[in-house]
Queue: 3 jobs
Job 1
Amino acid sequence: MQFDTMKQGYNRFQVDDAFAKAQEEIDELTKKLEAYKKQEEDSARKIESYKHKYEQLQRNIDIKERAAKDMTKMALHEANSIVTSANNNADMIIKEALMNARTILINISKLGIEANEIKTNLNEQLVLLSDAIDGFDIPPIPNVELMEKKYKD
């Protein structure tokens, strides 16, 4: 900036005008600075709020992750318990079925033996009956015609 020189120094109007412009610029920059400070404070509050929300979300995530892990452990434990119980029940059912099958086979075997004994017994009785029938002599049958004639006369 340059001012015209006069008898007693610089041109007062130019200096006053330059000073007024500088003051306006200072006032404008001061207002901008205040606005920026306010914006910076608002941003700092927002950042702090976001930090708080982030920390809260992180805590919630941690809690939910721990809960999910605990539920997974409990579900796995329960599933293992169910599988163990099912295996034990299956083993018991198989043992019972094998015992029933064994009992049935024993009964079938006994029935087979009894059937053979009955067959042998019946064969013996048939032989005795056949011998008795063979040994049975039928007396001669009288002539029925002659007897009928006797009674008719």
Job 2
Amino acid sequence: MEQLPNCPKCNSEYTYEDGSLLVCPECAHEWSLNDTQEDEDILVVKDANGTLLNDGDDVTVIKDLKVKGSSSGIKVGTKIKGIRLVEGNDGHNIDCKVPGVGAIKLKQEFVKKQ
């Protein structure tokens, strides 16, 4: 019997075929076998609460953050609109413009989705 790939969303091993689609019974995600290679390239970024973030989401800062080269930092509760997700090798996966600070990269564990 052919070994089916794990679910790309929840990594469940209990996937099954339904016609030309693969289905995960645990999270109800459906995808075609051709999509499996494309899903591996998707950047998955989750906020401090574990909520999945997408490009264009609005987030709120959950901790006072110091900014290098600036006397002021980013305060708790600062709302940031229209984030962009980037591949950051040091954990800074969120590219955004913070009011009063400017363009900056943030770590995902310091924000929550609005």
Job 3
Amino acid sequence: MSSKSIDKFKGSCLFMACGIISWLPFHTLRIFLLRSLKAKISYKAGIYRGFEIRSPWKLKIGQGTIIGHNALLDARMGLIIGNNVNISNEVMIWSLHHDYNATDFAQVGQAVVIEDYVWLCSRSVILPGVTIGKGAVVAAGAVVTRNVLPYTVVGGVPAKQIASRNKNLNYDLSDAVLPII
């Protein structure tokens, strides 16, 4: 068996392990197991069931952050999520994808950074290399292809600024985490 085949097998086992972890009850158990895979996740975060995490050892999630049901967190090129971030259900964050113009369909990407107090609404998509500035809101169904400035609200495909947000944000989402869900 070649070393490439062994690496693929290891990757498949890790993917399945993360899939099993995503359906376990209790945030603390899911977070504990993800931390054992080298993810840097605050114990004051909440990660709801059904998530998909790629390369958990390149993932960092701050305190008070809530990750909704069926969220996809691609950390293969790095993913940093700040404090008190609300990532709603079925959000997809990608740090790696294919170059459709490459003759070999090569993978390309960059780390994604989600700063403090950001709200990513349901089914929004964040593409590789994007930084979402502090306090920004990404509307439901938006596709973010470029950096989002702090305290702006963006929506659409591709996402464009549609409003501004209050800059005096001071909330702690860790109190909103339901323990079993």
